[in-house]
Design goal:
alpha/beta, 7-stranded mixed β-sheet, 5-stranded parallel β-sheet, 12 helices, elongated
């Protein structure tokens, strides 16, 4: 049995929560399958977040059987019947989600070595479900036989194949299927997760994997700042949605103490709701294009590493795969460029292909000014 719930557009947003926000146009009319973690259920906090943030999506959230083969059979059947547009799994559910081939998927802190995790974190003996279940059962028992079952299931992971049909694919068709799968799966790993750490194993197969600021269990902040941006990318891709492009020069974001400028993080969170946002740093400084010595090249490499590390620390997932290093930002093709103009840009010697938003000018002195400007534009 699973919960199937769809909320209406007129649902009011809770005002006491500073993180949760609704996006009625994202995943509109689509089905989202959520696969819960160990000792949880379809009534977890993540399910509540999904239904609140995406009120016009239908969220399917089954209570999974304890035995892994039974859980996978249920999920295979549910996928065949419902054809979800997106599958999201956390922890143990992330391990199952990886094996639901043929669908767009997000695996959050996936427990790809579930048997080892169970032994290392005292998940043996009598266990209590952390959330209510449809059948009313409150406890279950984990013995060595059950751990062995999980070991068998996880050993079959990372081997994509079509779920429907019994015929084996020809080598060329299977290679094409696997290549496509590697671009349909996102892996998100909390940098403070002390329970599961399978990033290297997962990333070796699925390149769209990254760390995010968070623990093993998601909270409202990590969900909104790290998972929702990925959901937006997937929904945009599915809908072939083209958003206006904004480039942000990293020099506008960093203050003299190498910390974020006031309101810049707020601005990024607001801008990515309506725009495709990229972050731009110089490729090793102004002289990097003419670099001839190994010393200069190494300095340029360090510069790019530092810029990437700063963005990962203070911007997080929105900067992942959205960072550009260049010494010719006048060649960037898009709609807007938020930057501190260089002398040549001020003199008009390097005309931008984008509308220049000169940060620090009288009109755009602060990031609050920029927020106000783009709020008035309303996504144009």
């Amino acid at each position: 049995m699973y919960f199937c719930h769809k909320k209406q557009e007129n649902m009011t947003q809770t005002t006491e929560n500073p993180y949760i926000k609704q996006f009625p146009d994202l995943l509109k009319g689509k089905k989202v399958l959520y696969v819960h973690g160990f000792a949880s259920s379809g009534q977890s906090g993540t399910v509540t977040r999904l239904r609140t943030v995406f009120p016009n999506a239908t969220v399917l959230a089954p209570d999974l059987p304890i035995h892994p083969e039974e859980a996978l059979s249920l999920l295979y059947k549910l996928c065949a019947e419902e054809q979800p547009d997106l599958i999201i799994g956390t922890s143990m559910g992330g391990m199952y989600t990886e094996q639901l081939y043929g669908y767009d998927r997000i695996c959050v802190n996936p427990a790809m070595q579930m048997a080892e995790t169970m032994k290392e974190h005292n998940m043996m003996g009598t266990q209590t479900f952390q959330n209510p279940r449809q059948d009313g059962v409150q406890e279950f028992y984990v013995d060595k036989a059950l751990v062995k079952e999980y070991k068998g299931v996880t050993e079959r992971a990372l081997t994509p194949h079509p779920l429907q049909g019994n015929q084996e694919l020809a080598p060329e068709a299977l290679a094409a299927f696997i290549s496509q799968e590697r671009q349909r799966v996102f892996g998100l790993f909390g940098d403070e997760d002390t329970t599961v750490n399978t990033y290297d194993l997962f990333h070796d197969f699925y390149p769209l994997s990254s760390h995010f600021h968070g623990e093993h269990r998601m909270n409202d902040k990590s969900f909104m700042h790290s998972v929702v941006p990925v959901i937006r990318w997937i929904d945009d891709r599915q809908e072939k949605r083209q958003r206006p492009i904004i480039y942000i020069g990293i020099e506008t974001m960093v203050n003299g103490q190498q910390k974020p400028e006031p309101s810049v993080q707020k601005a990024v969170r607001l801008l990515i709701e309506r725009y495709q946002v990229f972050f731009v740093a110089t490729a090793g400084g102004a002289s990097y294009a003419a670099a001839e010595s190994r010393h200069t090249e190494q300095a340029g490499s360090r510069h790019m590493e530092q810029a990437g590390a700063w963005l990962a620390e203070y911007i997080g997932i929105p900067a992942w795969r959205h960072t550009i290093f260049t010494w010719r930002r006048d060649l960037l093709y898009g709609d807007y460029l938020i930057a501190i103009p260089s002398p040549s840009e001020r003199m008009g010697e390097e005309a931008s292909l984008c509308t220049l938003i000169p940060f620090g000018s009288d009109t755009f002195k602060t990031w609050d000014d920029i927020i106000a400007y783009f709020t008035r534009l309303g996504g144009q």
